[in-house]
Amino acid sequence: MPGNKSELKSLRATKYTSSLRRSGGIDRLRGSSYRAGLRLLDLLDRTRGREHRFLPPRRYRRFIGNGDFLKVGREITAYMRDELGMGPSHDVLDAGCGAGRVAIPLTDVLTEGSYLGFDIVPHAIEWCSSTIGARHPNFRFEHVDIRQEIYNPEGRLSASDVRFPAEDSSFDIAALVGLISHLMPEEMDNYLAESARVLRAGGRCFATAYLVDDKVAENISRGNTAFSFTHDHGNYFVHSKEEPTYAIAYRLEHIQAVAARYDLRMCQEPRLGTWGVSTRRPASMDLLVLERA
Ligand SMILES: C[S@@+](CC[C@H](N)C(=O)[O-])C[C@H]1O[C@@H](n2cnc3c(N)ncnc32)[C@H](O)[C@@H]1O
């Protein structure tokens, strides 16, 4: 997620969201100088030789969040391979695939299976299709015009009843990486229902999230977490009252209860990140694995 309010401003300055269109001249000026700076840095990258053939330009990487884009993608992929048993012939759905952070390292793993990534930001999908998809025909990317206050405020569809662009029982893994933290409760409910629908029996839903148990709730109340999440709504906590979908943390038992309604069962203890035990940033999220009955 974008780390703080200034990250949110820079997210807007990348012209990823149409919020910029609503903003005034000064913001627009700031946005264009910011974009020019990113282009300059990309040019320097090119002259020095890029690290990876699929590394997206900075303006496409920036809205994903902090950290080393390629390194984080490799770590997530390694977790999916080692902990979820993902193999070369698996079919993987990546909901909210962004600029391909997970898809890029997956191209080395899914040599016989398939990958479908969808996202609500058209430029990111165009970029992924024309680079990753062009070289790997078993990798497909789809734009779905879902409304989201930060990433796509003028989208046509609602996340609380949208259907994933996939057939029933057609995937082994449904990944929701950096996504649940942007979904309001009824949207999160629908995304778990849809994950369950597209998974085969025994398939796994893999999600990163900000998970709250009693200990973390206490840390939140004492200001001992990386994001403040001070607005407590019972089952969920929001970081910014004005823009709730900027970052949402969920009670673990709430996610488990919703998942159970769709025959998704937590099959291993979540791997806890650092965000809930320390104020240090950058902070990592928690990892959750749910198995489809
Ligand atoms: C923090 S980024 C993570 C992107 C990618 N999963 C990754 O790990 O690099 C969150 C992504 O979720 C997408 N997104 C936000 N709301 C969404 C929704 N309701 N449905 C699908 N994608 C959504 C955003 O456009 C953005 O690409």
From TrEMBL:
List, alphabetically, the CDD domains matched.
AdoMet_MTases
Asked whether the UniProt record includes Methyltransferase among its keywords, one would answer: yes
- Share an example GO biological-process annotation for this protein: methylation
What are the protein's UniProt keywords? Methyltransferase, Transferase
Under the heading Pfam families, the entry gives:
Methyltransf_25 (PF13649)
Protein origin, superkingdom = Bacteria
Q: Which residue numbers delimit the Methyltransferase domain?
A: 92-203
Q: What is the protein name for this chain?
A: Class I SAM-dependent methyltransferase
Q: Which organism is it from?
A: Streptomyces hebeiensis
**Lineage of producing organism:** Bacteria, Bacillati, Actinomycetota, Actinomycetes, Kitasatosporales
